[in-house]
Amino acid sequence: MQKILSLTLKMTAIAVTLGVLSGCASVKPEQLAAVEAKASSAESAARSAESAAKSALDAANAANAAAAKAQSTADAALTCCGENKDRIERMFEHTMKK
């Protein structure tokens, strides 16, 4: 995700630079300022998206760890349940033999 955002940011900077270089003779200072403002806005949006993506990744990693812990607890409970069932069946069989 970071590579995509970085690539987008680089491509935007390249496009702005090429646009400025190709039309320098006919570009007014106001137009250049508008382009620079849009480039800054795009860069800010890309950084914000990168930050949000990192936060989402951190949350997903935390959820994955919690799910793994829950799975481990469930597996342990299932094992214990099976052992208790076997013990009760042995006790019942022992009682029936008497």
Order of helices and strands: HH
Rg calc: 31 Å
Helical percent range? over 70%
What structural category arises from helix and sheet content?
A: mainly alpha
Low-confidence stretches: none
Terminal Cα span: 70 Å
Specify the biggest β-sheet. Answer: none
Total helix count?
2
Give the rounded overall mean pLDDT.
Answer: 86
The share of residues in extended strands comes to under 5%
Tell me the number of strands. 0
Which term fits the overall shape?
Answer: rod-shaped
Total number of domains = 1
Write a concise keyword list for the protein shown above.
mainly alpha, 92% helix, 98 residues
Q: Concise description?
A:
The protein has helices spanning 2-22, 29-97. With 98 residues, it is mainly alpha-helical.
Describe the 3D structure.
The structure is a single chain. With 98 residues, the chain is mainly α. It has one domain (2-70). 92% of the residues lie in helices and 0% in strands. It has two helices and no strands. Helix 1 (2-22) runs antiparallel to helix 2. The longest helix has 69 residues, at 29-97. The radius of gyration is 31 Å and the shape is rod-shaped. The N and C termini lie far apart (70 Å). 0% of the residues are buried. The model has no long low-confidence stretch (mean pLDDT 86).
